[in-house]
Amino acid sequence: MTINEILKQYWGYDSFRPLQQDIITAVIGGKDTLALLPTGGGKSICFQVPAMVKEGICLVISPLIALMKDQVENLRQKGIPALFIYSGMSFLEVKKTLQNAAYGNYKFLYVSPERLETNLFLDYLPSMKVSLIAVDEAHCISQWGYDFRPSYLRIAQLREYLQAVPVLALTASANKSVQDDICEKLLFPKTHQRFQQSFERPNLSYSVFNVSSKQNKLLEILQNVKGSAIVYCKSRRHTKDIADMLKLNNISASFYHAGIGNDERNKRQENWINNTVRVMACTNAFGMGIDKSNVRAVIHYDVPDCLENYYQEAGRAGRDGRRAYAVLLYNGKEVQDLQLQSNSRYPGKEEIKTVYTGLMNFLQVPAGAGMGVTYDFDLTNFSNAFKINVITANYAIKALEQEEILSYNEAFFNPSTLVFSCTKSELEAFGQGHPEFESLIKGLLRSYGGIFDFPSFIYEARLAKLIGKTPEMVLQELIHLRSFGIVEYERQNDKPQITLLQNRMYADSFQINLGNHLKRKQQYELRLRAMLEFIDDPAECRSKKIATYFGSAEIKRCGICDNCINQKNTTISKEDFEAISSLLINRISEKPAGANDLLNALKGIKKEKFWKVLDFLQAEEKIYLNKDGVFLNKK
To answer: Any idea which fold 204-338+541-558 has?
Structure first.
């Protein structure tokens, strides 16, 4: 099939979005390619369609477990066979997945970057007919990007084994230096292709408000802007507080963060997607991979620490092309706190060492051991147990992760998996002897294709609804099936996890590269400065400022952000200026008055224009303000 026929058959679209076809053509032509597409720009189609054209399997590298899971599930629902491997899977699960990738009829293998250098992966790699390497969230490869993941540096080593295979790097937000770093780290030749969609969003209005009461401003926005909305918050506690406040004001709302159980998160997400709930108050754990086009407002209740995050999150509004609003609320104290965050985000060597030693003791790791072992981890319990500030602990662990001492997955989600461990004839015989399991077995077979060959993600609550039983009954029956040896069943795990990438270091041999650590601190401060300049600028078009930051300065003023609107309101034609000037001078001649009295007397004049003319007349000394605060004409 042609790429257009594939697009129509599997995705139901008649045509590609801007740049998608150009990127796909470059990839099919064997070119290494960097693609910068904004949030909601259809990045996944850029590698999924060419992979369907090419013989073999597409290797997709992504750091986001939840996004990998969603994409694999979506592909399977379209009848496209896909697999994925992520940290937390057992050795046997990984081995079976790699065997299927090498010898089965699969089109996609999604992997987390940590897996790329393992001996098991490299053993099976030569047997895979890899047609394309797709690197999602490619900004993670740059040490100077906002979300550097050292495991991404291993990707380039794949090229030794897959020399003729093209690489497609995709990201929604990377400035020019990060773009160049991506291409360098992935060993792109000079002949590589680079595509960047315009950062122009003509339907999205950006606004920034310095407010004393964020709650009142939030209510005002949601009362004026109807339709679905997202409110982004920095803390989990804020999400619940805001949702409760909105409900008290008769606005349908829910809250979402990584600390909520997976079933409940899925339920809340579905309610919001289906418009049962209007507003979702959430942390940045929400929104990744969600395809909802009719979001009318994205409101940031707290200031993000970089424009990359802000642009991605704000970009979830107005994907249907209709007018939408991205609103950022802040106050002076918040800006001051942000300016002081650099030291807490990048703790010193002794602080990092203290956290590392405490962590090893907390996990009960013997000295000289632990490499490759994964542990469930609760940051709050750890901080309380060792009396370490939770913020210091979190960022010290991040520093250890960036130096490849450990891997920390805060929002870990390992879905329930099930595979039949018997033959079809054995299952039939079992069913005849145990009719009480008939509805469950039929529900499994109807819902999950290939469940005899490979562990499938299963959702107990959904299965329970299908067969008319409670989730608790389904859980017990699944456990019984496992005890009979009919299935291999692993229940979901959504606890954060730490994987040690090195054996525990002895206290006197603790090492960390402070040079890299300090450089990353400097880059953080530069990104933070750009974010604060975005907030503070009262004149530059917001869309243009974002585009300039990302190296695309050619776009014109949007005309709909707060700064553009304010400029329109204060732009005065020669006729308007003369008319307002004449009215002011005549009114002051008749009856000298203060500024507010003059404004009230001259009905129908926009106050922005009034102040501009008043300031001009004072500067030109045509009027003056006496000691009583009254304007008089110069004689």
So the answer is: Rossmann fold (3.40.50)
Global pTM value = 0.72
Q: How many CB atoms lie within 10 A of CB 119?
A: 6
- Contact between residue 537 and residue 566 where contact means Cβ atoms under 8 Å apart: no
Query: Are the beta carbons of 482 and 430 closer than 8 angstroms?
Result: no
- Nearest residue to 581 via CA among 546, 548, 614, 607: 614
Greater pLDDT, 79 or 173: 79
CATH of 340-413+495-525, one of 3.90.79.10, 2.30.30.240, 1.20.272.10, 1.10.10.10: 1.10.10.10
Mean pLDDT score, 595-601 = 81
Angstrom CA distances, 372 to 16, 108, 125, 154, 502, stand at: 43, 26, 21, 17, 7
pLDDT of residue 461 exceeding 60: yes
| Environment class of 321 (CB within 10 Å of its CB; exposed 0-12, middle 13-18, buried 19+) | exposed
Q: In what order do the strands lie in the sheet with 406-409?
A: 374-376, 497-500, 406-409
Helix axes 236-248, 214-224, angle to 10 degrees: 60
d(CA 57, CA 78): 17
**Residue 14 Cα to chain centre, angstroms:** 28
Which amino acid belongs to residue 327? V
Sign of the Cα torsion 253, 258, 264, 270 reads: positive
Q: How far apart are the first and last CA of the chain?
A: 85
Token pair listed for 77: 């629902």
Distance between CA atoms of 31 and 24, rounded to whole angstroms?
10
Q: Beta partners for 607?
A: none
Please calculate the CA angle 503-508-509 and round it to the nearest 5 degrees.
Answer: 45
Residue 601 is predicted with a pLDDT of 83
